[in-house]
Amino acid sequence: MAFGRLKKNKQDQDKQELGEDVQENTDGVDSSASGAGARERGPQAAGPWDVSDKPSEDGYVDLGALRIAAAQGLQLRLEVEEKTQRVVAVTLDLDGSSLQLQAFAAPRSETLWDDIRNQIGKSVGSQGGTVDELAGVFGTELLAKVPAQAQDGSKGFRVARFVGVDGPRWFLRGVFGGPAALDPEAAKPLEEVFRSVVVVRGEQPLPPRDLLQLRLPRDASPLPKPAGAPLTPPERGPEITTIG
Prior knowledge:
four-stranded mixed beta sheet, disordered C terminus, single chain, 3 helices
């Protein structure tokens, strides 16, 4: 497992952090514009987990509010807000696809995903894109397509698949990019990673939709893992500066 750090400029705080800017959360351009298709939610879709419900966290990387299960070939990149140096997201890369994760505080008696889906739809529409609401393995999800230009100059779409899970006093949002945004088979490895995520809400009072605090691992290595697990310790990669 490799570990990197990605800097990003300060944006409009929580709204864009909740994923309204689809162009910040996609990795490729798809010129076919084909849909992902609806996928039934099955019993295997247990998780993501609250820290109080996960029986064991052996083999996990501790990022503060999120704990990620280490896996062969999985690369982690922390996205850092350039002005504040605050870690605002973690992006996981595996087999040519990506999964961006962000966790937010939520009210005790209210869910956020319905409202956030509406916000994403409005933002994508303002960019000339379209949003399809689908039944997926994690419940209702969105497939967003924004007009974009491919590397060869042809016109296509930038595609992102948004999923959301309302937990106890937290909300976890995932954005699949690359082949995992459109191909159910390509998505399976990262769906397993998403399913295994542990959210650590903490007891401090926070306004709804505030980002839960992420941080670099203290020792840049996973928590103790079961014997024989085919993993390599994560390493901090080079810093990359992006212009937002």
